[in-house]
Every structure is written in structure tokens, then in C-alpha cells.
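Entry 14: structure prediction run for lipid IVA 3-deoxy-D-manno-octulosonic acid transferase. Input pasted below.
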Amino acid sequence: MIMNTMASRVAYGLYRAAGRAAEPALHLLLRWRRLRGLEHPTRWPERFGRPSSPRPLPPAPGGRPCVLWFHAVSLGEGLASIPLIKHCLRHRPDFLVLMTTTTLSAFEVIKDQLPSCVIYQLAPLDSPMAMENFLSYWKPDAVLLMESELWPNLIISAAERGIAVVLLNARMSLKSFKRWSGLLALPLISLMLSKLSLIVSLNTVQAVRFQLLHASPSIIHFAGDLKYGMLHTLSYAVGDLDVSEKDARKINNLQLQMNNRPIWMAASVHKGEEEVMLWAHDELIKIFPTLLMILVTRHPQDGQKIASELKKQRVNVSLRSRSEVIFPSTSVYVVDTLGELRMLYRVTPIAVIGGSFLPGLAGHNVSEAAAMGCAVLTGPHVGHFSHMLGEMRKSNVLSVSQAGYCNTSP
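Run finished. Output C-alpha cells:
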């Protein structure tokens, strides 16, 4: 046990030393990313723990508000945390909620979805200086990490300050598990997991992986997939399924353009999957000649290239980023914008979820489409979402289907 503790401390010491040595290079890297449009043009210093918002004053002399820090890496995890944040604020409006995400795309979308009282910052880097700046300024009482956000400086520094650290919707891919099980990494993650107050695991498989990495069984609990569970809890219903006036106008405009045509949507389509979707669309048009496909790219930058290729094939295409109208002759409507999936699910009865039709992919969250009343179809490669699909089939066998391996070659 002493050797394990010593090994963990040595591993953490090496990690911190490497982080301190890399800080000048990280500063240059973030400046370069800002010039490339990959970081926020004015708020990128937040990544070094430098706040852009004032910390609210205490409600009474000598007191201070209880601060809950929610952290998610990207758009999907960030959106999944919003119902939980709303639920917390409904029951404890005196709490101060701080939200951070890592990616710029998540920031641009989520900033308009959060309650106005929530403070939203870009996540600090996991360097000693950035984390020290962030924790010293915001002084959170609890940190709620979404899914697989295991950062040594964040978790260990917070715990050493007496801050409760919770991992929600906890998951660990097989690839990550193998990486953390290595001789050098195992002592570090063992120390991290020992600092967690609670792990709310996605399923039994994930729980076993955390235990094999030396997480205490006493802190591991189950609540199902929060993204899926949102469909069945009040926290999901609080405002989240309401349509904003802006989205209502968009929906009405799209429905007028679609003019009661039969529609299906291919969502979160990765590079290479568009060929599968277009093959399926060609086959379906033989049965439904007026069928319209909404093709939502996973990466917006792929939209123009897909539209260009389709036009070369004499397919009638409209591109959303260019505000092109859906005509009666439009066969494919390519959506290459961010943050509109939830709105688009409201205009289609069928949603095929991409990221699941090619080897090497691992699926995407299907609960949002199901929540909007869509019949859901995925491919065979769904990764950790297989548990969610199984639970959804138990509750409604017709709500979701999974395609087997197929060959679209002639």
C-alpha cells in the first residue's frame, strides 16, 4: 500500500512537473489556435484560469454563495448537463452555478441555452498554474464532471482543497481503460479515483472498469445514462422541451418549405457515411418519389464539399449555411450548422443517427431524437451507447432499431 501511494505521488509529481515545463509552449499554442479560429478571439485567456466574469458578492457579511462547478468537454456532454443545472436551480436558487466547456463549438451553442444566472467560462487547461488560478478565484464547493473528464490537476487539486468531486454519467472506453492500465498511468489514475467523492456510472461494464483501476466500490452508484434518463425525469422536462420563439419560427419556415413531403433525416453524419445515406435515399426514392432527406453533417466544414459532390451527380441540393430554400425539386437538404439538431428533430418522423455505420466509429446519443418523437435507427457501431439502446428497446421496442452490417456496393 505504501509502495502504491509512493508510486502514485511520484506519477503525479512527474505530471505536474511536465505541466509546469509545458506552460510557455501552451501559451504559444493557444495563441496559434486563436489565430486559426479554434479558440475564442477575446476569451481565450480563460483557458489559463483568468476569469472574464466577476465572482458574485456574498449574500450576507461573512458568507458566500455555494458554488457548483459543472464541467463538460464538448457539445453533447454540455447539453446533457443543462437539465441537471436547471433542476438544481429550481430546488436551490441560492446556489451559484458555474459552467465550463472545452471546445469552441460547445461554447457558441451552450451560451444561448443556459439560464441567465449561470456563469459560463471556457475550461482551464489542466496545467498547475491554470488550475490554481481557476480554483483560487471561483472557490467551488463541488465539481461535477461529465462522462470521462479525468484530469489529474483538476481532480487532485480540488480534493486537496476540500472540494467534493463527482463524476456523472461516468464512462471509460476500452481503449482508455487499456491506456490507464499501463505501468506508468495506473498509479496516477488510482490516485485520481481515490479523490472522487462519487462516481455515477453509466452501466455495470463501466463500473467494473473503474473498480479495476482501483476506484472504491463504495463510491460507485448507478443512475443509467443521464442523456437517456432525461427523457423520464422532471429535470429534463423543465423548459428543455419547450420551443423558443426563434426555433418556432425556424420550424414553421421549414415546414412551409417542405410542404407536407415525406421526410427522413440522417443526423451527425461522419465523413464516408454520406455515401451510405445517399445510397439509402436513392433506394427509397424509387418507392417515395417526393422524399426529402435532411443530411446533418457531424462537422460543419464538410457540408459544402458534400453539396458540391451531389451537384456533380445532378442531385438537387440545398445548403442551410447559405440560407438556400427547399424547393419542391430539392432531394437533399444539407445542414452544415451547429446547435440545430434538437430543432430539426421536430420536423422529421425518422432520424438515422450517424457515427455508427463505419468501423472505428462509436455512435452518438439517440435520446434527444427519441425525446422529440422520432423513430430512431442506428448502425452497428454504437460503442457505449449499446446500453442506452437496450434500455430504450425494453421500454418501447418500436422506438429504436439498429441496422446490421451491410454492403452498399452494387
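Notes: The chain has two domains: 2-52+63-237, 245-402. Will compare against the previous run tomorrow.
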